[in-house]
Write a structure and sequence with these properties.
single chain, 8 helices, 3 domains, Rossmann fold, Ubiquitin-like (UB roll), alpha/beta, 25% helix, six-stranded antiparallel β-sheet, Elongation Factor Tu (Ef-tu), domain 3, 428 residues, five-stranded parallel β-sheet
């Protein structure tokens, strides 16, 4: 056999091997494309990953797609007092239609329409109020926790809180109640990788924090979570046993309960961790130097101290989320509205009542002005959060005292935080 013949044989063998390899590659590619086509026709698999949260966008999409319009009828399945004073009561709400409840963003609130008797006039009236959800999302019930609001100590003749008293005294197990779907911009910002979370709740401001805390820990998220809870003493300590169990069973949860006026029987280190208010010195002494997401909810004095203080510590304002009680306006959100010139009278026209009234520059808001002139307005938070007083503007413009948190429909305004910029016609 000559050298040339041998070379040809070797070359032929090599070419055959290359051809076999190419055929195998083509065959494998064909199978992969076939599998891909089949997967497109199949139902997508749902993968549950306990260590991750839904993204903010996904959570909001799920909530909005599953939500309901207007008011839905619920029944009170259970009532349960949460503190020693029996001043805070949880209400477990189930829908009368027995349909699964939509997902909400932890930290949001429910809006209620209540028919009750006015303690001054003894006439029936309808009021709207908002209360934060105090538990993680469930498919079969919602939970809210409401503190009874007594008459002010300095003004004993002033009636106690209208809606809180109604819930405590008249809403029983089995009572029916009208509820709007969960809403509100104050909620857990759910990203693929969460920053360490700092929850700060003063008094009943703990309720949205419980919703966030329960959600994060139940989903097995491993990010570090700090809860700072400020109350006077054990008398108002809500869900004490629950919080202590969470602290014992989750290494990533750090509980800091602050009693500002503990009882003689309250033991530091057992009932509470700090004999002080929740303030910047405490945060500086207990938190590591790193980036966090801060969630803050409480009464006005606490909010006005903490929020500027956090920014003074170098915390980026984009990492601070907060919700205030009632009509409290925070310095951070204030913006100066152009004053209406006394030389240019402004008229407010209410179309449904056929009234045109000269605007009073002393009024704090259009809501206050309307109520002072006998115009009934559905309202609740009075702080631009809930959107209950959203009203159609038929003509004219408004200026806001602060940035609205509620979602506004086109051509509408929030009466509780706005004033007229010029002559105004409202659909009221």
């Amino acid at each position: 056999m000559t050298t040339g013949t041998l070379a040809l044989i070797i070359l032929g063998v090599i070419l055959v091997q290359v051809a076999i390899v190419m055929l195998l590659i083509i065959h494998r590619r064909k199978r992969e494309y076939q599998e891909l086509d089949r997967s497109k026709d199949a139902s997508p698999a749902v993968i549950s990953t306990p260590s991750s949260l839904l993204s903010k966008q996904t959570a909001e999409t799920v909530a909005s797609c599953s939500s309901w319009e207007g008011y839905r009828e619920f029944s009170v399945q259970r009532k349960e007092f949460e503190d020693n004073n029996k001043s805070i009561c949880s209400f477990y709400l189930v829908p009368l239609d027995s349909k699964p409840l939509p997902v909400f963003n932890p930290g949001q609130f429910l809006t209620f329409k209540l028919l009750l008797e006015d303690p001054v006039t003894y006439e029936s009236k309808t009021i709207v109020r908002c209360y934060s959800l105090s538990d993680a999302p469930r498919s079969d019930y919602y939970r809210i926790s409401i503190k009874r609001v007594p008459a002010p100590a300095s003004q004993p003749d002033v009636p106690p809180g209208l809606s809180s008293s109604f819930f405590h005294d008249h809403i029983k197990e089995g009572s029916k109640i009208l509820v709007k779907a969960a809403s509100g911009h104050f909620h857990l910002i759910e990203e693929e990788e969460l920053l360490p979370i700092v929850l700060i709740g003063g008094g009943i401001g703990i309720t949205p924090m419980l919703s966030i805390l329960n959600t994060v820990l139940e989903r097995g998220v491993k990010t570090e979570v700090w809860l700072y809870y400020g109350i006077p003493s054990s008398d108002e300590h809500i869900m004490k046993a629950h919080l202590q169990v969470l602290a014992r069973t989750h290494d990533n949860f750090h509980l800091h309960v602050c009693y500002s006026a503990p009882n003689e029987s309250d033991a530091e280190g057992i009932d509470y961790q700090h004999n002080t208010w929740v303030g910047i010195p405490l945060l500086r002494g207990t938190l590591k130097l790193m980036r966090y997401q801060f969630y803050v909810c409480g009464p006005k004095p606490m909010m006005e101290s903490l929020l500027p203080g956090l920014e003074g510590l170098g915390v980026n304002s984009n990492d601070i989320y907060y919700e205030s009680f009632g009509p409290a306006t925070l310095i951070k959100h204030k913006k100066t509205a152009p004053a209406v010139s006394s030389e240019q009278p402004v008229n407010i026209t209410f179309t449904q009542t056929a009234k045109t009234i000269l605007w009073d520059p002393a009024a704090d808001s259009l809501l206050e002005f309307a109520e002072a002139n006998g115009i009934e307005v559905e309202s609740s938070c009075r702080a631009g959060n809930c959107g209950s007083c959203q009203t159609t503007v038929k003509a004219g413009e408004v200026d806001y005292n602060q940035e609205p948190d509620a979602d506004l429909s086109p051509g509408h305004c929030l009466l509780c935080i706005s004033k007229p910029k010029n002559d105004l016609t409202l659909e009221l």
